[in-house]
Amino acid sequence: MKTRVNILAVLLGLLGLGLVLLKMHTVIQKDDLDGVEKASYLIFMGALLSICIIYFSWKTLIVKFNTESRRVRFIYPLRFKTYSYDFDSILGFNYDFIQAKVKYKKIGIGTVDGKKFVFSDFGTDNLRELESFLVTFFEIRGQHFNKLSTELKYKELLFSRSFDHHQKGDAKFSLYFILVFCFIVMGIFLTASISRFNLVPMFLAVYLLLLVVFIIRKIRMVSQVKFLDMKKSTEVLK
Question: What's this model's pTM, rounded to 2 decimal places?
Answer without folding.
Answer: 0.73
